[in-house]
Specification:
Layout lengths: L3 E9 L21 H9 L5 E11 L6 H16 L5 E5 L5 H11 L6 E4 L12 H12 L10 E4 L2 E4 L3 E3 L8 E3 L6 E4 L2 E4 L20 E5 L6 H8 L5 E6 L7 H12 L4 E5 L10 H6 L1 E3 L5 H13 L5 H9 L2
This protein binds aspartic acid.
Aspartic acid binds next to loops.
Amino acid sequence: MCAANIRVLATGGTIAGIAGSAIGVEYRSGEIGIDAYLEQVGGLGLSASLSGRQIANIDSADMGPAVWNRLHPACIDALADDDCDGVIVTHGTDTLEETAFLLDLTLPVVKPVVVVGAMRPADAVGYDGLRNFANAVRVAGDPAAAGRGVLAVMGDRVFAARDVRKVRTRGAEAFRGFPRESVGLVTPASLQWFGAPWRGGGQLFAWSDDLPRVAIAYAHADLRAGDVIAQRGQDIRGLVIAGVGEGNMPLDVRRALADLAARGVPVVRASRTEEGLVDREESDAADGFVAARALNPQKARILLQVCLANGLTEPAAIQRAFDEG
Ligand code: ASP
């Protein structure tokens, strides 16, 4: 079998971070450029031919349309290139799940696309970035990865973009999947998939470089309607409420959001709990709400943005998009 040609699109994050001390706590994300990174990776003896492109070099707290609008076309170029077998996106872990899901929704995933990061900077003792990267190369070089949408590799596990979420602030095992825990196990030398590919290469939604603004409101005891309305700003086209429990909220907040939905601003009920499945309730029809199902608030926000960009504004049509997970 000849070595896979893999395009690496670098956006920064801790995987490219430097602390200046092997044991320091503070560090700067996005310091190492992709050429230097690939030179370092060259020493690992990976059976793949890697070419790199620097899309950005940022902390992923700053991730958003400015970078996505460069990253998406770069992915499309790579997927259309006959000399490219797979794509790796290096990314900060803080918002990795959002970029991975956005790409999952809007790319024709006809080849493997893998998003990877690291929890420790490159000069720290126990740097996890090289192993995660080597694992990502293993996944991106496997044609069987293509039928599983965009994937995230962290630790020795492969996650589907729709499921993956960061659940810890520290430590190399900071990611989990929900509702599917993970879809495969990987090491630099082995890859085991759990089950058959579930998705063709088709693109789920059209890409838009002008995603509408959608806000998230975080529910808590004693949340007031006025707090939510003040928080949502003027130019918001949709709202996700990170509700308590199963997407619940105080009665006056519910009334205010039902009023918002009646004025044509879609409202999605998600949960602030870590594994928050939110199913439709009878009251959703009357309130004009959408239930987020298994998506956490930040993923629900991405899907709502993509729905709105694709002209889906009616709650029933948006609900179908949330149901099709
Ligand atoms: N703050 C970093 C980032 O998201 C964290 C990381 O990459 O692990 O860019």
